[in-house]
Amino acid sequence: MALSRFIFLLFLSSCIFAVLADVSVENCSDNSTIPTAQMSANIDSLVAELASSTSQNRFSIATYGKGTDKVYGLGQCRGDVNSTDCTTCIQDAAKNIRTNCQNQTDAWLWQNDNCILRFDDDQFFGNVDPSSFANLYNNDHPQHPSAFKKQLDALISKVSSEAVVPANEGLGRGKSFSVASNDTIYALTQCTRDLSRHSCSECLNIAIGNFPKFCNNEKTVGCRVLYGSCYVRYEIYPFYYPLDS
Ligand SMILES: *[C@@H]1O[C@H](CO)[C@@H](O)[C@H](O)[C@H]1NC(C)=O
Ligand SMILES: *[C@@H]1O[C@H](CO)[C@@H](O)[C@H](O)[C@H]1NC(C)=O
Ligand SMILES: *[C@@H]1O[C@H](CO)[C@@H](O)[C@H](O)[C@H]1NC(C)=O
Ligand SMILES: *[C@@H]1O[C@H](CO)[C@@H](O)[C@H](O)[C@H]1NC(C)=O
Ligand SMILES: *[C@@H]1O[C@H](CO)[C@@H](O)[C@H](O)[C@H]1NC(C)=O
Fold first, then answer.
1. Host domain of residue 200
2. Does ligand 3 have an atom closer than 6 angstroms to the CB of 31?
3. Would you state the pLDDT for residue 25?
4. What residues does the Gnk2-homologous domain cover (predicted)?
5. Which residues form ligand 5's pocket by a CB distance below 6 Å?
6. pTM here?
């Protein structure tokens, strides 16, 4: 798979500190023009089926079509997002992914940070694909960078170990306050549910291992690293649900 395009749609600031609003991030592959009208029709059917089954079950994988026109897809809501928001999210994603990645045989879209929709003409279930990614970070620096980094590393490690517990369905989240950093950090990790415990851990480790590269050398109070099979985010404000936990 060679995904290679990325569109970053939205950036907002508040007056207290810069807050990166919920965003939609997609990675469409540039070089995979859909070869047949049948495959294009199959992608439409697949995406519609995923929108419907993910609305009901919060997670679904599906295949559509036969032979060389067969396509594979996955839909999933972030574990902390409620059913109402999940349905809205996956329906929006279904619309947007076909508009934004209309000529691609493989694409993924994280819609408003709340859900992911993905399709491919190659079978990808259970695989970690580190080749297509996106990142965004806050330009504000922590007050005490080295204390912040220490606190962040510990929190991310705790939250990741939660995500790989099968009962948690790929979701880990938590917060921590440190006097030394003078910040409360909130963090969330989410794997797609087709991944094994081992693959979830692998995907999260790749994402976290890329913090120095993707998160302004970790000199930032907030960052997101997104892949087609996992998501990691931290901020100094609550962003996951319920907002007070
Ligand atoms: C896309 O295809 C063109 C021409 O075939 C090639 O030059 C280019 O390197 C490819 N880009 C990627 C990202 O694979
Ligand atoms: C779902 O979560 C949203 C927050 O995004 C909240 O506004 C809404 O009231 C919640 N709906 C239900 C049914 O709990
Ligand atoms: C998709 O392909 C069609 C037909 O080749 C072309 O007209 C259209 O501009 C392409 N869309 C994008 C987003 O590249
Ligand atoms: C999307 O994935 C490609 C790899 O296929 C990567 O080169 C590109 O940088 C990704 N987009 C962003 C903004 O990271
Ligand atoms: C802690 O942070 C708050 C607000 O961010 C600031 O007003 C306060 O001076 C800081 N305290 C210390 C000891 O750095």
1. 135-235
2. no
3. 86
4. 21-124, 130-239
5. 143, 182
6. 0.87
